[in-house]
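During the reporting period the student researcher (J.K.) took over the structure-prediction task from the postdoctoral fellow and processed the backlog of single-chain submissions. One of the processed entries is reproduced below for the supervisory committee.
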Amino acid sequence: MCRLRPQVKWYKGRKITTISPLQSTAGHRPRPRYATYSSVGCFMHPDMWLVILMFFFCVACDSLATFLDVEPKDSNESNLEYAIRLNDRLRLFYDRHNKLMECSKQVIKPSHC
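J.K. obtained the following structure tokens:
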């Protein structure tokens, strides 16, 4: 997380106040206090990640809803045939979910402190 603290820099005998270390680079004149675009980015950064994560969550929910969507029972379809069709769809979802969990367990290994 960024902390905005005024910092005093000296350039050619003049005192220049900057808001964050991001405003000055090695060998270059520090940017003055009124040019705070990089510091504003520090405020926007956590909000941007929240928006991106919420977007992926919504896409995943929509994908899950379309994957589990089963057409309603036809008038000429028996209860057993409809139950078998529902069971096949849920079995396919369960198999894919297990594969996904195995892959994520390999990627994200818990640390044993």
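The committee noted the following: The beta strands are 7-11, 14-18.
J.K. will present the remaining backlog at the next meeting.
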